[in-house]
Each structure stands twice: as C-alpha cells, then as structure tokens.
Amino acid sequence: MWRSLKIRLNQSLAKLIKFNILSSEAKKLVAIQTIFTFASLISGTFLNIFLWKETQSLSILAAHNIAWALAIPLLFILNGYLIKRYPISFSLKGGLLILAVFYLGILLLGPKISLLIVPLGFIRGAGEALFWSSYNLLTFDHTHDQNRDIYVGVNGVFNTALGIFAPFLAAFLMVFNGYVYNLGYYLIFSLTIILFLSTFYISSKLKLRKKNSFRLERIWRLSKRNQKWEHIQKASFIQGFSGGIFGFLVGILTFVILKNETSMGNFAGIIGVVSLLINFLMTRTVKPQSRFNYALSGALLLSFSSILLPISLSITALLAFNLLRSIGMPLFGNVLVPLTFSAIEADQEADKLRYEYLVSNEIFLGLGRSLVLGLFIWFNSLVSDPVSSRFILVLVGLAPIIIIFYLSRVHYSKTSINYC
User: Fold this and answer.
1) For 15-55, how does the pLDDT look when each residue is reduced to its tens digit (9 = 90+)?
2) Which of 61, 33, 63 is nearest to 47 (CA)?
3) Is 55 inside a domain boundary?
4) Is 17 within a domain?
5) Could you give the CA distance from residue 35 to residue 345 in angstroms, rounded to a whole number?
6) 417 within a domain of the structure (yes/no)
7) d(CA 392, CA 378)
8) In the chain, N or C: fewer CB atoms in 10 Å?
9) Residue 72: which domain range?
10) Count of CA atoms in the C-beta half-sphere (13 A) of 411
C-alpha cells in the first residue's frame, strides 16, 4: 500500500513540477531540505523576536547574529577536514544535532538566556554550517547544470508550501502564550528539535559519489584561476552584507506593526501563497539561458520594496513590502544557486576543488554579514529605537542591484581559467 502511494505521489509530482527529472539522491535531498526548512520556518519566524523580548536590546541581538555569522565560515573550513575522514552524513547529522542542542539550550536557559546569547549564536552558526556545507556539496554532486533550475524550483515549491502552513501552525501555538508565559515559544522550539532529529533517517541513506580532497591554501587562488568566481565572491559579500541585517530587522519591525506573534504567523502564511505560485511557475519556465532575466526582474522588485517601510511603518506598507518580496525573492534567489554552481563548473578541475569553492563562497558571505552587523551595533549605540533603525533598509535594500551587476558578468562572460 505504501509503495503504491509512493508511486502515485511521484507520478503526480512529475506532471506538476517535473519531479521525475531528478535522481533518487536528489529527491532525498529535497526531502531533507523540506523537513529542515519546516523546522526553520516554525522557529525562525519568532527566534529573533523571542531573543529581543528577553534581552530588550537590539545590540545584544546583533552580537548574537555576529557570532552566528562568524561561526559559519569557520565551521565550513573545519568540515572540509571532517569529510576527508568521515562519511558526509556524519557532518550533516552533526549539524542537525548541534541545532537541536541550540534550541534545547534556549528551553533550559529561559530568562537567563541573555548571559549566554553570544555563545548560543556561535552554536547556531556551527550547526547551520555543518548542515549546509554537507548539503551543498551533495547538491553539487547529485545535480547538473541542465536540471539544477528544476531542483531549486522543486525545493522552492515544497519550502514555500510549508511556508504557508508553518506560520499558521506557529501562530496557533503562540496562542498558548496567553495561558503560561512564553509557553507558545517553548512548544515551537520543542517541535523544532523533533523535526531536526527526524531527518537522521533520511540522512543515513545518502551517498557521496566522489572522494573529498580539501586543502585550505587552494581557496585563496580560486579567483585568480577562475574569473567567473571573482564576480561570485563580490556578489556573495554584498549578499551577506544585505542578508546579515535584513531578516532580523524586518522581523522586529513586523512585530512592532502587528503587535503580537499570532498576527505575525497568520500574516506570513497568507503572503506565502504568492511565493508558492511563483516557485511553481519557475519550475516550468526557467532555463539556463533565461536565468539572468528572472534574476534582474527579482532584483528590481526587491530593491523597490526596501523603501516602503522607511516611508511608512503601517500595515498597508508592510503588506506591499511582503507582496513585492514574495514575488521578487523566488525570481532572484532561485537563480543564485544555479549561477554559483555554473561558475564552479567553469573550472575543469571543479570535481577536485568543489568544496574549496563552497568554503570560499561562505567566507565572503560571512565577511559581509559581520561587517553590516558591526555597523548596526554602532548605529544602534547612537539611535537605540528599533523604529528608527528601519531607515537602514534603504541602504541594504540596494544590494540586489549590485549583486545583479556581478551576476551579469558571470552569466555573459566566456570561461577563462588560469591554471595555477
């Protein structure tokens, strides 16, 4: 019965989103990211709100995120040595276990969390780094340039579908805050731990087709041997600069406007419907040659949306902001991974250097995140009001336009490899 149901599901997905184009390993990766994203969506919507309410300080929250940003490239490097000696599932599972420990720490510390908020940020970053470094390596190995857009689009469809359901579930659980102080948060974080641990079974069945060879010194020569990668590094730095502050600041401002967590969850679920539609359409229309046009359209929408909340901190502006981003983010974000991997594959020694490329990307993302968060702490020391901080969105909101400039150099340039 289960086998018959599985076959029917695969046939339905094949008709809707070209699921049959993906290999069995790629489908397992989709399942792993779907569960991981579900856990992240349930807790991530409210994690920064919870930490802000407990600490009452945006600067302390920013310090937590700096520790998170610095941990990611450091653990990407460490994992390079781990995967030379252990199966790739070892790091993947290790990342999930560390994230479970992070949320368990939040549950156990309670009101004392402000004392360890920076170490907790490092723990969160370490868990995410081990998970994503392993996951990205597997993605590179089990997809190729002709099906990678489908793979990203399929992930987008599943993740966005959960992006509709998860906020509603989180909003329902937040109702329990009215009965016992922070009970809704504790229920959400407990469910997140269960979901992270539940991915262990699928992770144990993954296979790594290629032997890993990692040398740290090779990272610093990548931009010299691959001109496309030099542009990706610059784009990654700008992406980190924007993403390092955008997510948590928008979350705080959304809470300020909507006043409570339940409204935040319901609002996020409604907006997710638009993203689901865009992701579905992208699985059926995006081709390697059309990637840049989609990314350009998304970049323009994202940059325009960033001026709305600084102009008016209202529900109308918040709705317009989220609608534009729910369209622009899939158009822009779903193209970043295929373009990044195509730049790696421009190197004829990509199989040998693929992990060095992934580490290099995370180093530049981490540098961008750390710089913008450091600047935010300085700004917040002058203006501590979170409402006034919304004007930062205009500055970081220009990032997609700058990124698209560098991506155009990747998309339209001819391959140039200097073997050194």
Assistant:
1) 445 556 677 788 888 888 888 988 888 887 778 888 888 88
2) 61
3) yes
4) no
5) 29
6) no
7) 12
8) N
9) 24-205+217-412
10) 22
Structure tokens at 113: 């969390």
The tokens for 358 are 């992934």
Contact call for residues 100 and 196 (beta carbons, < 8 A): yes
What does pTM read for this prediction?
0.82
Number of structural domains found in the chain: 1
406: its two tokens: 């560098």
- What is the number of residues in the chain? 420
What lies within 8 Å, CB to CB, of 390 at 6+ separation is: 249, 253, 309, 310, 313
DSSP E strands, 180-284: none
* H or E element that contains 72: helix 58-85
Q: pLDDT tens-digit profile of 231-256?
A: 999 999 999 998 878 877 888 888 88
Does 341 reside within a domain? yes
Lowest mean pLDDT across 84-88, 185-189, 271-275, 279-283? 279-283
Residues 6+ apart with CB under 8 A from 319: none
Tokens of 47: 């994690």
Q: What phi and psi, each to the nearest 5 degrees, are found at residue 226?
A: -135, 105
331: domain CATH number? 1.20.1250.20
Neighbours of 293 (CB within 10 A): 13
Residue 4, token pair as written in the block: 């018959």
The span from the CA of 321 to the CA of 166, in Å, is 20
